[in-house]
Amino acid sequence: MAERICRTCGTPENGAAAFCHVCDTYLGWTLNIDIPTPTADPPPPPPPPPPPGPSRDRSVDPRPDPPRPDRVLAPVASLKQTEVVVTASSPGRFELSLKNDSTIVDSYVIDLADPPAWLALTHSETNLLPATVRTVEVALAVRPGILAVAQRTTVPIMIRSSVEPSRATPLQIDVVVPRFGPPATLVAQPNLIRLADVTDGAFQLQLDNRAANFARRYELAATDPEGVVQARFAPPVVDVPAGGLAQAAVRFTAPPPPPGKELSRQLTVTGTDAEGPISVSVTLAQYASPPPESLPVRLRLEPTTISMVDTGTAAVNVVVDNRGGHQQVKLNLSGRDPGGRIGFSFDHTRVAVTANSLGYVRVVLETQPPVRGASATRPFSVVAVADDGREVEAAGTLELSSRPDPIASATLHVHPEHLLTKGRKGSYAVDVDNRAGIEPLHVRLTAVDEYGTARLGLQPPVLLVLPGQVARAGLVVEHPRPAGGTTSSRRVQVSATSQTGRIEAEATFTQQSENLRRLWAVLMVLLGVCVLLPGVVLWLNDPQLDPSTIEGVVRQLVDDAQSQRRPATGNVMTAVAAAFLLLLLLCTALMLLGLTGGGRMVRFAAIVAAVSGVGVLVGSGAGVGLPFALVGAVIAFAGGVMLRR
After folding, report:
1. How many Cα atoms occupy the beta-carbon half-sphere of 447 within 13 Å?
2. Where is the composition biased (Pro residues) (predicted)?
3. Count of other CB atoms within 10 angstroms of residue 129
4. Which DSSP string do the residues of 498-565 spell out, in sequence order?
């Protein structure tokens, strides 16, 4: 069979083929060459085509002209209608007119641009020869298993070239999904409600619109044959989405049946929309217990025991319990006090209490509180008398107490307790201790001494001591010093006084005066020694008593004694004067040594010193140092006298 050669791509095709299977070029326009069916000895292949280039002589070239470049254009498309109706059971169909302006045969793809999830598109064959027009049937269908809500929407359509997908023509069509589906179903959960001794109940409503593709709005209502059941819906108007469910809560109140009886009521709940009502029935099974036995009225106090601290007024609630009764009671209230020391003040002396309820009346109790630091217990009762003479009584107790005066738990301390001073003044710290108290303490401080002769000052004189704390004040005692060498002691009494009490504390103030007599005695002895020594120095500087003269006299006397000669009188007197001068120096040392004793040695040494001074004068005849010796001896003697104990 003869073959056809595609003029566009050169692909050989079967002679019966109308289009090239590679480029979809219509082969009817191509210069086809019949090629005989090959035999056992095929002819040699045709010579290769000449190299590309301009032909020198086209009139003598037996080969066909070279293929001209093809042009792919977007199709020309138009809709024969602007609206299509699509349902779940029937797809929507419309026709599309296509024209191929390309130079090649083209096949077109028709699809939706950004379609909704529930919409699918199919179409018939779209292969077109160049410059031809074809009507294509397009079908829009609802995808299985997906609900298409009733709506009207505009859907973009794209017609693309299969050769060049970028060559496309946009269109749009309005898709209408009509409403379909039965009315919603109404279900009550539960549909049987049992009420025992109660009048209120509740149940749930479920509206099922899953079979419809459009939303519904139902207004809810409830009726019963007797018209006594009151129903409340939340919400009263329910919007049920397309293909969905909605719920509503129903609370109702039904009058109870007679005591000990059962009653069944049929409650019909209706939901109404534009298409009509839907309804469901709920059965109410009610039961009322037999009436309990009527109990007498009871009376109690809240609280029954009232603790009162530092006050004489308290409030109590009188509770009238008529929960066991079946009818209203009216009572007159009053108070009783065996001791006659409590006053009663009722908010209402007459009270009416309905059946199966409680009544409350406030009463204020007034009494005299006990004295500070004391306690007392006072019983009382409240009496309720009914109109028929029945009497009910409730007893209570007042526990009264009065906190002790803050001064009773406070303590007073003076620091130090014993003060010894050598001056005129002494200082104390006065502490008011309120750590054991529970109330602030306000006190005034005062202080006196036992003889009333000392001057005392407190700073500050008034203290405010908070509970659990200690406050301090300063006390200064001033008194003249006692005589020298004596001691004076006196007791100082400090008091802290409040409006209701007083606390006291004592301390001792002792003054000691030093004895200055001994000091003066020592000074006089030292002064006497200081006066005496210059006299000794003056004598030693005298030519008759200088050390060289005395040394020569002593040697002469020793020589006279060895040679058994009678010494000269002048030498003897000089030796005696030197001995007295030495004794005078020794007395000076004894005076200083006598300062450690009672002055006896000082007095003795002073007398000897005076005598020695006279002896020096007699022996030497030099009286230059005698005044110093006598005056110093006298002063030292006086100091020795003062040293006597």
Report:
1. 31
2. 39-54
3. 18
4. -SS-EEEEEEEEEEE----HHHHHHHHHHHHHHHHHHHHHHHHTSTTTSHHHHHHHHHHHHHHHHTTP
Residue 299: which of 332, 268, 270, 273 has the closest Cα?
332
C-alpha radius of gyration, the chain, whole number? 72
* Residue-wise pLDDT tens digits, 145-157: 888 888 899 999 9
Chain position carrying tokens 């020569």: 552
Q: How far is CA 401 from the centre of its chain?
A: 39
Return left, alpha or beta for 485; rule: phi > 0 is left, psi -120 to 50 is alpha, else beta.
left
**C-alpha–C-alpha distance, residues 18 and 24, integer Å:** 9
- How far apart CA 164 and CA 152 sit, in angstroms, is 33
Q: pTM for this one? A: 0.38
**Positions in the chain short of pLDDT 50:** 1, 29-44, 50-62, 68
H or E element at residue 120: strand 119-123
Q: How far apart are CA 31 and CA 3, in angstroms?
A: 11
pLDDT tens, residue by residue, 287-302: 888 866 656 888 899 8
**Which one-letter amino acid corresponds to residue 505?**
A
Whose structure tokens read 């004040």?
A: 473
Q: How many residues does the chain have?
A: 645
* Pick from 218, 252, 247: nearest CA to 232: 252
Contact 424, 479 (CB under 8 A): yes
Spell out the residues 6+ positions from residue 23 whose beta carbon is closer than 8 angstroms to its own. Answer: 6, 8, 9, 11, 104
DSSP state of 66: P
The residues, ordered by sequence, that sit 6+ positions from 386 with a Cβ below 8 Å of its Cβ are 297, 329, 330, 331, 392
Please work out, in degrees rounded to the nearest 5, the angle formed at the alpha carbon of residue 298 by the alpha carbons of 294 and 302: 145
Residue 155 CB coordination number (10 Å): 19
Strands of 106-112's sheet, edge to edge?
83-85, 168-177, 151-161, 106-112, 127-128
Cα 579–Cα 584–Cα 587 angle in degrees, nearest 5 = 125
Distances (CA, A) of 4 to 16, 111, 297, 645: 8, 35, 121, 170
For Cα atoms 315, 316, 319, give the angle at the middle one, nearest 5 degrees: 150
